[in-house]
Design brief:
By secondary structure, this protein is α/β, with parallel strands linked by helices. It contains 11 helices and 13 strands. The chain has 2 domains: 223 residues, Rossmann fold, CATH 3.40.50.300; 66 residues, 2-Layer Sandwich (Alpha-Beta Plaits), CATH 3.30.70.100. The strands form 3 sheets. Strands 5-6-7-3-8-9 form a 6-stranded mixed β-sheet, with helices on both faces. It has a 4-stranded antiparallel β-sheet with strand order 11-12-10-13. The chain has a 3-stranded antiparallel β-sheet with strand order 2-1-4, covered by helices on one side. It binds adenosine-5'-triphosphate. The site of adenosine-5'-triphosphate has 11 residues, from helix 1.
């Protein structure tokens, strides 16, 4: 869930700092220790620790209501934590909000702009002294021909792209993107992905809140999986897959190959855990190395390589599902101690 107005965009009210690429960032961009936030006595972020280094793209993923948006809202100073310490670029997001506003760009899903505000007017309103080339940015996000369109006339995806333009306009050092590509068509989604990859190449730190796990897998160097306000696990997408969904399945049909001899041979291959066979259809479950050994066995066996040969490799979604499933024994959401 995303709420709020684009309060952390640099609205052009104050001078924008020099280009972030030329600034020296020492230390972490985000440090969170023991963050706790509750609503109406219900703890929704529970003693959370988080660390984001300069130039990283970190994804917050997890179940609905896990506290991801609340966490990034606290980082932006839009929510005041009950307890814990937050430093963003070394600053306190609540007490030093003015200094931080110049350096953090946000794209929030449900942000709004006045209906009659035209695209160029919105860009002018938010542009600081050192803003990027506005026309180039609008073209890059496919909004060039909509320069004169009022906000109310934009489609959901176009609004989303405009918010992204506004978030990037002033070359922020940290960009927070919540549900980045929701509502975008597949081509626009890829364009936005490449824009984020470009940000990374330029050294911008990015925090991404997303349910799109292919997006997290494509863009994030590290993902933090959350449930009930707590971090369940974190690591590179590949590490989470290896830890929580390590198995693969190789399937193929081998006409006329029935019988236990083949099963026995496959069973003995390194990495194979289980072989099942139904008529001509063979399914082999095992570790990743089993893929190579089964392939080698197939070639060496002299059978033609089966046309229906298929390998199912788990992805981040499988890993997260397992992780969420395993964590159902977490204690119920905490109530604030009275
Ligand atoms: N202003 C609020 N008042 C009361 N409860 C709130 C408020 N904002 C969020 N919550 C609740 O806090 C919990 C965490 O919400 P949050 O939006 O941070 O989770 P999320 O992980 O971003 O969820 P989603 O993936 O569904 O967007 C939810 O149960 C939500 O209903």
């Amino acid at each position: 869930m995303c709420r709020g107005v684009p309060a952390t965009w640099n609205g052009g009210m104050q001078p924008t700092p020099m280009r972030h690429a030329t600034e020296h960032i020492s230390g972490p961009v985000v440090t969170v220790r023991g963050l706790t936030k509750s609503y109406g006595g219900r703890v929704v972020v529970d003693n959370l620790d988080l660390h984001v280094g300069a130039g990283e793209i970190v994804g917050l993923i997890g179940a609905n209501g896990a506290g991801k948006t609340t966490t990034v809202e606290c980082l932006q100073g839009l929510r005041t934590p009950d307890s814990g310490v937050i430093r963003v670029l070394g600053l306190d997001p609540v007490k030093q909000a003015d200094r931080l506003r110049l350096q953090v760009g946000s794209q929030l899903q449900s942000s709004g702009l006045p209906d009659r505000l035209r695209v160029t007017e919105a860009v002018d309103l938010f542009a600081g002294a050192h803003a990027q080339d506005r026309d180039r940015l609008l073209e890059q996000f496919g909004l060039g021909r909509l320069r004169r369109s009022p906000f109310a006339g934009l489609s959901g995806g176009e609004r989303q792209r405009l918010f992204l333009v506004l978030a990037l306009l002033n070359r922020p050092r940290l960009v927070i993107l919540d549900e980045l590509t929701q509502g975008l068509d597949p081509a626009a989604r890829r364009e936005v992905w490449s824009a984020v990859a470009q940000l990374r190449d330029e050294g911008t730190t990015v925090m991404l809140v997303t349910h799109e796990l292919d997006e997290a897998e494509a863009l994030c160097e590290r993902v933090v999986a959350m449930r009930q306000g707590r971090v369940l696990d974190q690591g590179t997408p590949a590490e989470l897959v290896a830890r929580h969904a390590p198995g693969v399945t190789v399937r193929f049909g081998l006409p006329g190959a029935g019988g236990s001899a083949i099963r026995g041979e496959l069973d003995r291959l390194p990495g194979v855990h289980r072989v099942s066979q139904e008529r001509d259809q063979v399914a082999i479950e095992g570790a990743r190395e089993a893929i190579a050994h089964v392939g080698a066995w197939l070639v060496a066996s002299g059978h033609p390589v089966p046309v229906d040969l298929r390998v199912d490799i788990p992805d981040l979604e499988s890993a997260l599902l397992t992780l969420l499933d395993q964590s159902t024994d977490l204690p119920e959401t905490r109530k604030v101690a009275s």
